[in-house]
Amino acid sequence: xxxxxxxxxxxxxxxxxxxxxxxxxxxxxxxxxxxxxxxxxxxxxxxxxxxxxxxxxxxxxxxxxxxxxxxxxxxxxxxxxxxxxxxxxxxxxxxxxxxxxxxxxxxxxxxxxxxxxxxxxxxxxxxxxxxxxxxxxxxxxxxxxxxxxxxxxxxxxxxxxxxxxxxxxxxxxxxxxxxxxxxxxxxxxxxxxxxxxxxxxxxxxxxxxxxxxxxxxxxxxxxxxxxxxxxxxxxxxxxxxxxxxxxxxxxxxxxxxxxxxxxxxxxxxxxxxxxxxxxxxxxxxxxxxxxxxxxxxxxxxxxxxxxxxxxxxxxxxxxxxxxxxxxxxxxxxxxxxxxxxxxxxxxxxxxxxxxxxxxxxxxxxxxxxxxxx
Length: 373
What we know:
Residues 85-213 form the JmjC domain. It is built from 8 helices and 19 strands.
């Protein structure tokens, strides 16, 4: 964290010793055939130069025969939200703030496959699965981007590599935002990319505004400053601009902004799946004691704690914690993989805890798996 994080790329040999793939290429290919899955194939003609011959196609895919056996890559976003075993990979990165984690993208590349030299605006850890891939990574620098085709942005000029290595299964490559990099598969290979979200100022402001409107916060309206005789009614004065900026600055410095930001941080990328039939609080204890009942965090859901506010946040909602509910709330936060429901039984011991548990299940933040599921 002191020497590499957001400073310089690094290669961790055998960061995952004796790594076993969490998904088979055939399963990944099948997932990319499903509606609602964000998947794309990037292909580059071996006969073309580096700046030509690129194409991008988006899923869902019906078959893959048209792409041949070389020079293409299948990329599937947010595989952790579709396959829990891929989501378990995230437990290795709990030394970083959970709200910063974006998703796990999984890619399969045929020999010669890659997406070209490019820059990412977020930090990423790339874990090598089956096969071998040669990676070149440069230090952070300003580079010229260009688009050889729709939906693909590459860097124009060559870069000097500070890392030029072949990754074997279990190796981990960390690439800070803004560092150019290029990976080419030497043989059919799988890669797992753990990306970290880094919203821009504009994205933060947009999300804060959406959340403030939903929760009816930041409602102070614009008022004119002391107006003097205007030179012309169509002229906007510096005083009026200053008044607008002051209004926005007051919003970002208000007592409500912490709550709004925490709601934004807790939002999931996609809508969470709610149970077909809602759970009633009075059902919770019996359900937890069902044979083989399991409780787990819904893939992609966040359950974030703010100590100064003594509240948890999930999917844009705030859950103030009382003396009665704090043990249950923190026990839920400690769940990294599915646990037997009976392990939560001791924490669900009052009307308030049963209400909290039922609400979290009904809103899809946590899931309850029963023997018949």
